[in-house]
């Protein structure tokens, strides 16, 4: 305890006076179990060793001495360990608001939200207009028009006055490119300027469609055509629009006398225009015989404005002037045993098979005889050629003239020859194998009769009905009771594409 500092830690328990060098011990000094304690601190252990602080007991604080000169700065000690963080101070006052920053770029749109549930439908309001009126969207509202109705009983859509019904317009190319077309579909073809309907396999023209009725109608004899045949008076009625037809008109054939009857005139046009409406038709009858006198000409056949004459009657057995064949569309043949010319033709000559005729039709003159004794009667003229002359000079050489040829036309789909002249009659006495002539003209002409004076006599025949053929001629000595020398009746035939 040579240093005061060694007891400085004991504070009030031990005091040292530095001047007198006396040590004061407080009343709390005690000895226990061989050790010396100051308060509760053991300063001397029982073994005599020092138990207090190495600095000794702390003495009482002396007076402050004079401050000495500042020593040199010592080396910086090691940094002490970080102290514990102090408690957080109170929040300071809020600073002033800063300036507004520039607006950031717009973000990408978010995903669309799910569709909300549909609201309940409002109650249906009352429908205006009549109970058949068709409704439509009229500027966002339900509208209607009294001129557009639908009758559910009759299933008819009615477009009223001053209203129009429009169809889709297609060129032919656009129409042909359509697919899935149902039968009954209607379009307007702007290439052909017509309304067309689809029938399930092709397009039929509805606007400008020619249609007609009358006579005996046939759509099977000629492929792609409809044929109207009139063998008796009637009416050809056209509806839709005017059109072009093939037209064949033949007058009635002349009756046979002793000379053959001439054929009725034959008119043909491959492109005859007919207008909408009714076209009256009359069919010329064949001329009737009046044996031994001369018979009558055939009657005219008419189609609207077209009038075609009948054929001329053959010359009679009687004396002048009735022995001469009469003029007609094709003339009648003159009686036998005279060289007087046959009846002239009032129709035009020069016709050929299938050819268009002039307005008067085709026809040819009747024939005469080459000699005045034992000479057969002349044949009646036909539409295609004149009748041939009778010939002879003796009973065994007498030869009747043949009827003139008719003309062939295929208006019905098959080539048919019509308007042939009638053959002349004869009275010679030639043997059974001798030629006798009097053959009917091809196209419905009647045959000439042979007299009872020769082996194998024959009667004359009438012209064929509805061919306009001339009746066959007959001599006075022909088989008794034979009077079938009538001319054939006429005909009208019309054909057009369908």
Structure described in brief:
The protein contains 1 helix and 25 strands. With 498 residues, the protein is mainly β.
What is the CA-CA span between the terminal residues? 156 Å
Instruction: Round the mean pLDDT to the nearest integer and report it.
Output: 84
Shape: rod-shaped
Secondary-structure element series:
EEEEEEEEEEHEEEEEEEEEEEEEEE
* Secondary-structure-derived class: mainly beta
Number of strands: 25
Strand order of the largest sheet: 14-17-20-21-22
Note the main sheet.
5 strands, antiparallel
Strand content: 15-25%
The percentage helix is under 10%
What is Rg?
Answer: 71 Å
Compute the number of structural domains. 3
Q: How many separate helices?
A: 1
Low-confidence parts = 1-10
Descriptive overview:
This protein is an all-beta fold. It has three domains: 4-57, no CATH class; 169-205; 209-498, no CATH class. 1% of the residues lie in helices and 23% in strands. The protein contains one helix and 25 strands. It has one helix at 172-176, and strands spanning 7-8, 14-16, 23-25, 29-32, 35-38, 41-44, 133-138, 141-151, 156-159, 169-170, 186-189, 194-198, 203-205, 210-213, 216-218, 225-230, 234-240, 243-250, 266-274, 277-282, 301-303, 306-308, 407-409, 416-418, 491-497. The strands form seven sheets. Strands 14-17-20-21-22 form a five-stranded antiparallel sheet, with no helix packed on it. A five-stranded antiparallel sheet has the order 15-16-25-18-19, with no helix packed on it. It has a four-stranded mixed sheet with strand order 10-11-12-13. Strand 4 and strand 5 form a beta hairpin.
């Amino acid at each position: 305890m040579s240093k005061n500092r060694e007891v400085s830690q004991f504070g009030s328990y031990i005091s040292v006076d530095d001047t007198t060098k006396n040590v004061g011990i407080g009343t709390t000094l005690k000895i226990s179990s061989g050790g010396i304690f100051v308060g509760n601190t053991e300063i001397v252990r029982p073994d005599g060793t020092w138990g207090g602080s190495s600095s000794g007991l702390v003495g009482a604080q002396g007076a402050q001495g004079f401050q000495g000169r500042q020593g040199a700065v010592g080396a910086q000690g090691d940094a002490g360990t970080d102290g514990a963080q102090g408690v957080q101070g109170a929040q300071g006052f809020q600073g002033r608001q800063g300036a507004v920053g520039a607006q950031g770029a717009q973000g990408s749109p978010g995903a669309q939200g799910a569709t909300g549930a549909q609201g309940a439908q409002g109650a249906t309001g009352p429908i205006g207009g009549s109970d058949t009126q068709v409704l439509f969207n009229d500027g966002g509202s339900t509208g209607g028009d009294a001129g557009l109705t639908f009758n559910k009983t009759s299933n008819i859509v009615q477009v009223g006055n001053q209203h129009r019904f429009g169809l889709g317009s297609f060129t032919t190319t656009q129409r042909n490119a359509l697919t899935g077309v149902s039968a009954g579909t209607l379009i307007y073809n702007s290439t052909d300027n017509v309304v067309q309907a689809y029938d399930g396999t092709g397009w039929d023209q509805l606007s400008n469609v020619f249609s007609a009725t009358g006579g005996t109608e046939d759509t099977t004899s000629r492929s792609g055509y409809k044929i109207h045949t009139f063998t008796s008076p009637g009416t050809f009625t056209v509806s839709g629009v005017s059109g072009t037809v093939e037209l064949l008109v033949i007058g009635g054939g002349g009756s046979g006398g002793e000379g053959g009857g001439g054929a009725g005139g034959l008119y043909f046009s491959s492109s005859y225009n007919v207008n909408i409406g009714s076209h009256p038709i009359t069919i010329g009858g064949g001329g009737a015989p009046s044996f031994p006198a001369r018979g009558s000409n055939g009657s005219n056949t008419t189609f609207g404005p077209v009038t075609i004459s009948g054929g001329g009657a053959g010359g009679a057995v009687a004396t002048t002037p009735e022995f001469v064949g009469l003029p007609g569309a094709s003339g009648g043949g003159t009686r036998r045993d005279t060289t007087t010319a046959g009846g002239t033709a009032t129709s035009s000559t020069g016709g050929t098979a299938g050819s268009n005729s002039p307005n008067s039709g085709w026809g040819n003159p009747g024939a005469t005889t080459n000699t005045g004794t034992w000479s057969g009667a002349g044949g009646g003229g036909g539409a295609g050629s004149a009748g041939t002359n009778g010939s002879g000079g003796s009973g065994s050489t007498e030869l009747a003239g043949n009827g003139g040829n008719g003309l062939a036309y295929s208006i019905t789909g098959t080539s048919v020859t019509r308007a042939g002249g009638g053959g002349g009659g004869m009275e010679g006495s030639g043997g059974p194998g001798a030629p006798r002539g009097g053959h009917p003209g091809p196209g419905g002409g009647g045959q000439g009769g042979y007299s009872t004076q020769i082996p194998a006599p024959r009667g004359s025949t009438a012209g064929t009905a509805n061919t306009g053929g001339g009746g066959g001629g007959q001599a006075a000595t022909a088989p008794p009771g034979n009077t079938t020398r009538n001319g054939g009746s006429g005909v009208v035939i019309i054909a057009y594409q369908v």
